[in-house]
Request: fold
Amino acid sequence: MPGITDKLKNILQSRKNGSGVSMKKLFVVFLLFAAANVFITYSGVQRHTEAADGGDTLKYIEPESYHSNVEKLINTILSRYHYKKYALNDSLSEYIFNSYIKTLDNSRCYFIKSDIDEFSEYRDKIDDFLIEGELHPFYKIFNRFMDRVRDRNAYIDKILDTEMDFTKDEYLETDRENAPWPANTEEADEIWRKRVKNDALNLKLTGKEWKDIAVTLKKRYDNFTKNILQSKSEDVFQLFMNAYTEAIDPHTNYMSPTTTENFKIDMQRSLEGIGAQLKSEDEYTKIAEVIAGGPAFKSGQLAKDDKIIGVAQGDDGEMVDVVGWRLTDVVKLIRGPKGTKVRLQVQKAKDGTNAIPKTIVLIREKVTLEEQSAKKDVLDINNGGKNYKIGVIEIPAFYSDFEAQQKGDPNYKSTTRDVKKLLIELKQEKVDGILIDLRHNGGGSLQEAIQLTGLFIKDGPVVQVRNSDGSIDVDDDPDPQIIYDGPLAVVVDRLSASASEIFTGAIQDYGRGLVIGSQTFGKGTVQNLIDLNRIMQSKDDKFGQIKLTIAKYYRITGGSTQHLGVVPDVAFPSIFDPEVYGESAEKSALPYDQIKSSDFKRFADLKKFIPELQKRHEQRINKNDEFSYLIEDIEKYKESKDKKLISLNESVRKKERDADEERDFQRENERRSKLGLKLLNKGETPSDADKKKEDKDFLIDESARVLSDFIAMNKVG
Reply:
């Protein structure tokens, strides 16, 4: 590939993902690529019919003439410039093969064993195909997948003609990721009979009659089948290329030209709506990321991997079933003018496979930089008979208005500038200590993470970056001034990632403050976005883009934030399962490792306080109902996650649903009783005013008590 080295050198000079791009571009890159599956779906497979002799014959999808060269180019970029030095061999070939098959049929319910046996000849040849630019085997697999989807849909239409018997004691296998492939079509039909019966039972439990259930499910599966059969050549190319790129690491992705364009359009528009990034998985639309400052974020009612199964407009619009819909069509339903109301029917991920659909009401807004900005509050805490004023600064993202800064605007917004003002205000209010709340903060600007750290330390290194060539850059605090030197704690959770982990890790390593909460996400890699059209010198933008991992973050002690994240000093119970959420859940994630420590001077050694702080924390939460509820939810989630079979008997499922609803009802009234509020009757919902009284953040309240313990222990010492 002549000239690629010179062209790429300039592109790879800056670490774009969180360091040196405009805020607008940074926001776009971060938000979409935090959910890289948003458009990596079956957005098209066009199946045409042609008459050779007056009859119809199927015409399958083939690769475009230029796809071979694009694949070779991507392969060259990955092999030369990816941070990970990998061997393209038979072992990786098998991983890519399995990943591609899994992308198409994760539940092993479309392909049958003879299909997989036939395709298995490719298992150890994909490395050769990539070198040669041979793409036809991947299109052959996808064309077979289309056939199986069409077959399954025809079977579903047939079985929905007769009302199902929900009195039988039979079960659906909920997790088929590692199940045997169906031995034949009849076995696949049986898997689908139970799967459709489960969908029908879920609708029946909401009060629907069989006639409506059959119509809803036929539409649902017809929509999904139509989406598959409308795919295009570039969609298949993208699916396979991502099976390759993500086999190297989960943050390296290829975007086709259509995906690239949708990416730009979607991000410009998505900031006016509910403030959430969506992805498509199987037949479902799922929450990929909740955008800081948006309606979904403010409501606290939506979380990563929640399934959206219905969308309705206003107070009384019809709830439209969107299972099986194309992602872009679901997005169109959810979007709307600012100030209008949208109702979402959601199955919460934390409630597991038997989740009861819940209706969530959101008011559409435009997510502005102001709404994402850091905010402060002051908590009055009585702990051990003493009163404490604890300042809380919530930082939803690490942001900076680079465009305003470049234009010379002296009042441009940034995380560091905003937090600096809040710190000064809190000092004037004479707070005893400050909490920095980074829960759900997915990162953003690397430079802001560095500068924010500088508000709490005098000088020294903040983060180390090792590049793909092995060279190491050390980024230092640029300002020797300390804005706040009092008691400090950082509150994190499993969704605190990237720039959040850099700041938190530095505060912990310097001994500058406590880290409270749960282990962070563990994303310690740096990506750059490469436009393949620039390299190929194409004017028609037909080659797409690749996001490439080019570097890795390390803490000043030498330990990587990758995979491990930041482990808190005082640990809280967490609903987020590390096997599902975080970098450690990704099979191809780069490993944790260490490099040489930087030279730095610790502010203090806080380790001596940790055992006593953890002990006091545990004593408190053992008497705290909200923590008891949280631990109960964690146990219920684990139980649901481990449950491999779900009953298809209506009375059994109704009993389970009623038990869940009763538990929620009793909890609600227990809370209201302690707050002195009127108890609810069954089916009654709390008023907005009551909700505000109930919405006390018990995790922040307990974090403030931990910090007040720390303050008291320091005074005694």
User: Anything to note?
Assistant: The chain has a mean pLDDT of 86.
